[in-house]
Specification:
By secondary structure, the protein is of the alpha+beta class. Helices cover about 50% and strands about 25% of the residues. α1 (about 1-65) runs antiparallel to α7.
Length: about 450
């Protein structure tokens, strides 16, 4: 039995650890997908904003040039003040004046893209144009915006290095997000993989199989669901969770999260050692288990009997016509039966565990006094006024005694004698009236006797 228990316990333990890791991987994937989508949208918005800013700077250059407030051959101060890398003026005759001069080498008369952009802004087909250019000498990429002056026919351009714009996304981009999450303890790798290969990874990893050649990844994409598998990745056992990822902003593919199973293996080894040591003391454990079962059964039986007695006692107290209020040694109300609710206008669920002084400020039931002294106070009359009417109550307060530590609170039974008192008064009043009637009848009889004799004598 011990061996069977150990086997199934070990299996359940291992399954629990793997399920916990699987849940963690799935939650991490969902968070990554949402964060990736939000980050991609934010990056796209920032790029559009940067382009809009460049177009506004181009319009600003056009306005300043129209008023003669800018010198394109010495535009260093304007460039620095407006966070640009270059400005240029393209005259109606095709001449180019640029600062720095290297910017002018980008405007080639044989470039159809450049000529189309010039025509669009000069003819008013577009308020501004955006161009990406590459320095043939250094290979550096630039992005520029064009704006035209309709009166002079000149076109004005502002330029900025693409690398400077991309620096904005270095700390907020998707790659940075995946790298930060991938540094968490227990995460072996995070990969955003497209059909062409690895797009983004949390660290430098060796080339992996393409999606088309990995049936597991193909199945996950085909069924569009999260899947989990155990595998050996770069010599380490990992639990990989895969989720298909479809986005209009980022290349679609799968996101793979690999969690290191080293912790799980260490826990399994530790459990195996514990089970091995436990088998040495199998006899003692068996004996202890039998004793525990016996004690547990006896304790369960006692608890059940106690619960039945407590339930029966509560039912009896709740069924009493008299009000019952009990407190513990701290003066907290522990029982407040329905009759007490009706008599004192409280609700048991609201009065339980409240200080009895809140309901009985002057300790009218003597609960606190009896709890402290341990001496009962029985059949004590209490007359109080409720809504202008006298209410006659009989209060019997007794201490709650415990076998070991003596008194442990008090309980008061309150009987409403108002109706009985009124009935007794009516009975006594009726008895007095009956006695008076009997006396009057006797007096009348005694008076009638001589009157009869006198009447008889008168007749004679």
């Amino acid at each position: 039995m011990f061996v069977v228990w150990s086997y199934f316990g070990f299996s359940a333990f291992r399954s629990t650890l793997l399920e916990a890791a699987d849940r963690q991987g799935r939650a991490l994937l969902e968070s990554l997908v949402q964060a990736t989508e939000v980050t991609a949208q934010a990056n796209q918005f920032i790029r559009l904003q940067q382009i809009q800013i460049l177009s506004d700077k181009a319009a600003l250059v056009a306005a300043k040039a129209a008023s003669g407030k800018i010198d394109f051959s010495r535009g260093g101060s304007f460039i620095a003040a407006n966070d640009l890398d270059g400005i240029a003026m393209i005259g109606a005759d095709g001449s180019v004046t640029a600062s720095p001069e290297v910017v002018g080498s980008f405007f080639r008369a044989d470039d159809s893209e450049w000529l189309d952009a010039l025509e669009n802004v000069r003819e008013g087909f577009a308020p501004w144009e955006t161009l990406y250019r590459t320095d043939t000498a250094t290979g550096e990429e630039w992005i520029g915006a064009l704006a035209a002056d309709k009166h002079s026919g000149n076109v004005y351009a502002v330029w900025k290095k693409v690398t400077r714009i991309e620096e904005l996304f270095r700390d907020i981009g998707i790659g940075r997000l995946i790298q930060m999450v991938g540094q968490k303890a227990g995460i072996n790798y995070i990969i955003l993989q497209t059909p062409e290969g690895i797009l983004i990874s949390s660290r430098d990893i060796k080339p992996v199989r393409k999606i088309a050649s990995d049936p597991f990844l193909v199945k996950s994409i085909a069924e569009n669901r999260i899947m989990t598998r155990e595998l050996t990745f770069e010599g380490q056992e990992v639990l990989e969770t895969v989720r298909p990822y479809v986005s209009e902003l980022v290349a679609s593919g799968v996101i793979r999260v690999g969690q290191n199973l080293q912790t799980v293996r260490l826990a399994e080894d530790q459990l195996t050692r514990q089970l091995t040591l436990s088998s040495v003391f199998l006899g003692l454990l068996t004996l202890a288990a039998v004793g525990f079962v016996v004690v547990r059964q006896n304790l369960t039986a006692v608890n059940r009997a106690y619960d039945r007695i407590r339930t029966l006692t509560g039912q009896i107290l709740d069924s009493m016509d008299g009000a019952v209020v009990a407190v513990d040694e701290r003066g907290r109300i522990t029982h407040f039966n329905p009759a007490a609710e009706q008599l004192f206008g409280g609700v048991a669920t609201e009065t339980m565990d409240r200080d009895s002084r809140e309901l009985f400020p002057d300790d009218e039931l003597k609960l606190e006094e009896v709890s402290l002294t341990g001496e009962p106070m029985l059949n004590r009359n209490w007359v109080r006024t409720i809504n202008g009417r006298l209410q006659y109550l009989t209060v019997s307060t007794s201490p709650i005694r415990r076998p070991k530590d003596g008194a442990g609170g008090a309980v008061a039974v309150i009987i409403d004698q108002t109706d009985s008192r009124r009935m007794s008064d009516r009975i006594r009043r009726a008895e007095r009236l009956s006695e008076m009637g009997t006396l009057a009848a006797g007096v009348a009889h005694e008076v009638r006797n001589p009157l009869n004799a006198i009447a008889l004598a008168a007749q004679r």
